[in-house]
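User: I'll paste a sequence; please echo it back and then give the predicted structure.

Assistant: Echoing your sequence first, then the prediction.
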Amino acid sequence: MSIRDARATDIEALGRIAETAGLFPAEYLADMIRPALEGAADIWLVAEIDGVPAGFAFARPEEMTDRVWNLLALGVAPATQGKGLAGRLVAAIEARLDARMIIVETTQLPEQAAARALYAKAGYEEEGRVRDFYSEGEDKVIFRKVLS
């Protein structure tokens, strides 16, 4: 397994991963990744297994902050879930960023329990919740990790 910067040729594969992992529709990916491919500060990392994209991580700096980044998306192909790939992507993002702090948002829903456990295992602490943020009964759960 290797981790590298995303390339334009990854868009289709990453879109499939995002959709099958239940993150967002594949057609959203091209617009999301475009700023990074055009030189924006956004970071997109791709995890490959045998040369095939198997996961990705996407982080963006928070505006008007001192080196705070938001880990906005973390996706792993269903066939490779449970093998430590997501944790390695989180560690790679942390190592790559010049960040004082990283935040990540998820929900309290049972289907996000594995994500919450992953972040807790990686040293992220629950910082807060916004009740009914995404929809009635679906809270935003905010985690943070201070790096420096």
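Strands lie at 2-5, 43-49, 52-61, 68-76, 101-107, 125-135, 138-146. The chain has a mean pLDDT of 95.
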